[in-house]
Design brief:
Length: 398
Amino acid sequence: MGSDEVLSYPIPNPTALEPPEVWERLRRERPAAPVTLPSGDRAVLITRYADVKQVLGDPRFSRQLDAPGAARITDSETGGVFNNELGSSVPTTGEGHRRWRQAVGRWFTAKRMSALRPEIEAMGDRLVDEMVAGGQPADLKAAFGFPLPVWVICHLLGVPAADRDRFSHWSDAMLNLSRYSEDELRTAQADFVGYLTAHVAAKRAQPRDDLLSTLVTEGAMTDAQLVATGLGLLVAGHETTANMIGKMVGMLLSDRSRWERLLDDPALVRTAVEEALRFDANPGIGLPRYLTEDTELSTGTLPAGTTVMCSMAAANRDETAFERSAEMDLERAPNAHLAFGVGAHSCLGQALARTELQVALEVLLRRLPGLALAVAPANLAPVHGLVVGGLSRVPVRW
């Protein structure tokens, strides 16, 4: 890898579950490497744990890439999930962002997640029943991994069960890098905004016990902010967790001793989930940040006006931060991975994601102890063309 080489980003994985070999060289030799994004714009990729943690933890730097000169992730007119006009209605920095997080975050407390846990478990059991009734082999992603998180997020938003299938397509489209045409993106965004606008109006007329009803009755947000909040929760709360369920099970079944270890000691589920989050080699594009002032990193100074791509996955394999970083250790603790980011912009729904991942794994271990991949691990196919990474299918037997 030459010192002036510009990599195309995102960097493809050799297989769906293995990290790109270049990550290690980047951390060692070029921890702030120039890259070309799908839009054709230039950015700087950072891969060291300390650097990624520093940039993500700095409240001055926003993921909203609407500053003059900021790099675009995609060149679509709709702007994609990082640049679109709808998303800009929610404050991304300062006191406005803090108030927004405080208002929404009350729905993602440990107490609320604990109360929701039995309902998630019951839905997981129903999905396993339906998958088993359909016969084997089955696609765990389609039968279990995707329906469970979409049920949860729609439950929180107060969305009727009959409308939930539409949310999967809208979520996919909002996370597009290259999978959908401009017309498809525009249609999906318009349909989603139209649906949520009507949904917000319905909550205003007849509030229920759900997150949007609470935000509507409190009156602290405009309708545009309420719609943008619903979009953010759908995209962050559904697609990422849905894909993570499939990848987590794929990781555990790709080395059967891992699954057997959890069968022998189910108390390890919590640390196993955290290690799966750290070990995930295919989380997607990572998080962009726009540097509003010169920033000193381990490799030197990056000038103000730089768009930085933070690879949390590469940072989570940093051998200076994690002992035996290339090994999946189901008992690893502490585990200060960066999968959810850090600081003021860390994932608002991480308590919900952890709850869903833990419950999903507990249900599968209890109901399907003989679960096994129906294909060789190397033949698991990754998702292409989306901001998030995942497996296109997770064929299993039991």
